[in-house]
């Protein structure tokens, strides 16, 4: 474990070079879109994993923060004329603010395990209903469109898809670097996940660190929602606050390996292309069928490879290392 | 006086696990705490460390009443504990368990090695805690408690289930720690262990402190014999 941790930064640099170089290869716009989606879901799953993986608080309602980030960006841009690049950063703060609504009561009064998970689902569902209901403000179930604007990084509006790819890749790399450097914070969260009584016995303020994990996780998830709306230029409450959105983050993270910082990236690399394919081929005909596939996948993963793809890689590696000397 | 337990009671529903327990612990001593199964020993530890809130009574540590403080604050005051039913970060290695435990108190990496060596877990450092044997888990309990550099160390049956030779090893570690100025309260069932390290022993039975004194005094006490062996053994 400790060896992998110290190598994080060393892996990030060459990976960054590869990721930034990829668009130099000429490709179909659809492939670029797929790359954007892969990085976006890697980013969102990494953000989810701060709370769900490291601190072990299984949230199935992260769409709440994703949705708030997206809608906050819309309001900031359209109503207040705040430059999108600024809104992207600020929108996450709204997600954090909203997250206190669930975190404070749950963590302060010790709502644990399944009860916390159920509370997160309810929280996202309630937000969805509120955003559908407040039609005059939120556009209701029809959703909202961002108007066309001047191209450029300030407006986060580009004609070429490659530019969006650079934005989301940078966001993901930034998040990875921050988390690689926050070793001690991560260790405290892991201690809490592993055993709260033990964590307390060595002096860790559990309530405080769980809340911090939630605030940080929801912040980055909100920024992800913000990216979503600037890229797609449209969102509705079903996508913004829906269970599929939450489940997708969880599934990718768990599949890749939620004990590792790299799990989400590996998970997204495999699952996002499959997910996009399923959505296109099945989505129209059998509404919700991809959810069933997600559910089945999740059960299989948890049953047969609780440490995810990354965990298997780690086991093989450690076996090899032991044999090698 | 380092710790003063004053009229502490703890009720679980209708069951009184502790009743008006008074107990003073002097700085630098090794106090034995004994009693039959269900006597309330672990409950007393849980009250001292904030995992349970006493129903009534006061617990004063270095002249601060610590009743009502959360466990992490009590830990930071310098009271360390082990768990009778061993616990640990099962998905992490022995080394990472102790390394993470050392973070809060700010111990250096060499202190981590020192502690692992002290309890004899150095060779197991890369083993996942989930696959340790019982004895190794007991050692891990002790190691983790040491990471916070405690003033007071509460040991809940860290030697039970160990072979005599192993128990002696741990006993040696405990007495070394004590020589460095750490006050210790030991809960054990095995009298041999208690006799060897404690000058003073307190006995709990059904939540009541029934005796206190040197191990020899306590073992001659009629109420203690009765509690341990039943009425018919009293001469
Ligand atoms: N959380 C709890 N809820 C209800 N009853 C409890 C709880 N914890 C302890 N008890 C009860 O309190 C009494 C004292 O238990 P405790 O664990 O303190 O005994 P002990 O002296 O440590 O015994 P042992 O030697 O078996 O470890 C027992 O009757 C036990 O069943
Ligand atoms: Mg006990």
Give a short account of the largest sheet of chain A.
2 strands, antiparallel
How far apart, in Å, are the first and last alpha carbons of chain B?
37 Å
Radius of gyration of chain B: 18 Å
Low-confidence parts of chain A, pLDDT < 50 over ≥5 residues? none
Strands of the widest sheet of chain B, in order across it, are 6-7-8-3-9-10
Number of strands of chain A: 2
Number of helices of chain A: 15
Measured between the Cα atoms of the first and last residue of chain A, the distance is 18 Å
Low-confidence stretches of chain B: none
Largest interface: A-B, 20 and 29 residues
Shape descriptor of chain B: globular
Number of strands of chain B: 10
Q: Assembly state here? A: heterodimer
What structural class is derived from the secondary structure elements of chain A? mainly alpha
Gyration radius of chain A, rounded = 19 Å
Estimate the helix proportion of chain A, in percent.
over 70%
> Hey, roughly how much beta strand do the residues of chain B contain?
25-35%
Number of domains of chain A: 1
Strand coverage percent of chain A: under 5%
Element-level helix/strand string of chain B: EEEHEEHEHHHEHEHEEHH
Describe the structure in your own words.
Chain A is mainly alpha-helical. Chain A has one domain (9-324). Chain A has helices at 2-21, 29-54, 63-79, 84-108, 113-133, 135-138, 161-181, 183-194, 196-201, 206-232, 237-241, 243-256, 263-282, 289-304, 308-324, and strands at 144-145, 234-235. A two-stranded antiparallel sheet of chain A has the order 1-2. Chain A starts with a helix and ends with a helix. With 235 residues, chain B is an alpha/beta fold. Chain B is built from nine helices and ten strands. Chain B has helices at 41-48, 71-77, 94-103, 109-119, 134-147, 164-179, 191-197, 215-220, 222-229, and strands spanning 3-12, 15-25, 30-34, 56-61, 64-65, 79-81, 152-156, 183-187, 200-205, 208-213. Chain B has a six-stranded mixed sheet, sandwiched between helices. In chain B, a hairpin with a 2-residue loop joins strand 9 (200-205) and strand 10 (208-213). The model of chain B has no long low-confidence stretch (mean pLDDT 92). The interface between A and B is medium-sized, with 20 and 29 residues. Bound molecules: adenosine-5'-triphosphate and magnesium ion (MG). Adenosine-5'-triphosphate binds at residues 12, 15, 17, 35, 37-43, 84 of chain B. The site of adenosine-5'-triphosphate has 12 residues of chain B, from strand 2 and helix 1.
């Amino acid at each position: 474990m400790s060896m992998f941790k110290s190598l994080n930064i060393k892996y990030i640099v060459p990976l960054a070079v590869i990721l930034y170089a990829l668009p130099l290869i000429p490709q179909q716009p659809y492939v670029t879109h797929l790359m954007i989606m892969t990085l976006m879901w890697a980013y969102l799953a990494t953000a989810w994993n701060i709370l769900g993986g490291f601190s072990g608080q299984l949230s199935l309602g992260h769409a709440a923060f994703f949705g708030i980030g997206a809608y906050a960006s819309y309001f900031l841009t359209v109503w207040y004329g705040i430059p999108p690049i600024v809104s992207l950063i600020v929108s996450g703060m709204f997600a954090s603010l909203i997250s206190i609504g669930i975190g404070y009561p749950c963590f302060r009064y010790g709502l644990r395990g399944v009860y916390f998970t159920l509370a997160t689902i309810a929280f996202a569902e309630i937000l969805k209903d509120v955003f559908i209901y407040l039609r005059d403000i939120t556009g209701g179930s029809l959703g909202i469109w961002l108007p066309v604007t001047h191209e450029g990084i300030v407006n986060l509006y580009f004609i070429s898809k490659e530019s969006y790819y650079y934005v989301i890749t940078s966001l993901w790399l930034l998040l990875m670097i921050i988390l690689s450097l926050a070793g001690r914070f991560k260790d405290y969260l892991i201690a809490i996940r592993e055993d709260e009584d033990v964590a307390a016995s060595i002096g860790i303020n559990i309530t405080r660190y769980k809340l911090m994990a939630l605030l940080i996780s929801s912040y980055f998830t909100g920024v992800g929602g913000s990216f979503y709306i600037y890229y797609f230029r449209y969102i509705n409450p079903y996508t913004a606050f829906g269970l599929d959105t939450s489940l997708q983050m969880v599934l990718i993270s768990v599949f890749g390996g939620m004990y590792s910082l790299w799990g989400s990236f590996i998970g997204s690399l495999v699952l996002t292309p499959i997910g996009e394919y399923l959505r296109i081929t099945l989505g129209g005909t059998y509404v919700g069928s991809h959810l069933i596939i997600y559910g089945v996948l999740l059960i299989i993963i948890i049953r047969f490879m609780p440490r995810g793809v990354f965990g298997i890689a780690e086991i093989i590696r450690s076996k090899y290392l032991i044999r090698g000397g | 006086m380092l710790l003063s337990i004053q009229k502490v009671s703890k009720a679980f529903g209708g069951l009184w696990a502790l009743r008006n327990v008074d107990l003073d612990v002097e700085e630098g001593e090794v106090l034995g705490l004994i009693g039959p199964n269900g006597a309330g020993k672990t409950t007393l530890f849980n009250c001292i460390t904030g995992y349970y809130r006493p129903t009534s009574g006061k617990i004063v540590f270095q002249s601060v009443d610590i009743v009502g403080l959360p466990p992490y604050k009590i830990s930071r005051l310098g009271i360390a504990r082990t768990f009778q039913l061993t616990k640990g970060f099962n998905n992490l290695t022995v080394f990472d368990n102790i390394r993470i435990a050392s973070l809060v108190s700010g111990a250096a990496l060499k202190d981590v090695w020192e502690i692992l060596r002290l309890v004899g877990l150095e060779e197991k450092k890369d083993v996942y805690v989930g696959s340790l044997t019982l004895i190794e888990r007991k050692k891990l309990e002790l190691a983790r408690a040491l990471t916070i550099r405690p003033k007071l160390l509460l040991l809940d049956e860290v030697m039970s289930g160990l072979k005599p030779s192993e128990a002696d090893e741990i006993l040696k570690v405990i007495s070394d720690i004590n020589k460095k100025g750490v006050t210790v309260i030991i809960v054990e069932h095995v009298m041999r262990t208690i006799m060897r390290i404690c000058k003073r022993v307190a006995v709990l039975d059904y939540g009541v402190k029934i005796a206190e004194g040197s191990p020899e005094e306590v073992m001659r006490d009629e109420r203690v014999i009765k509690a341990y062996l039943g009425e018919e053994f009293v001469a």
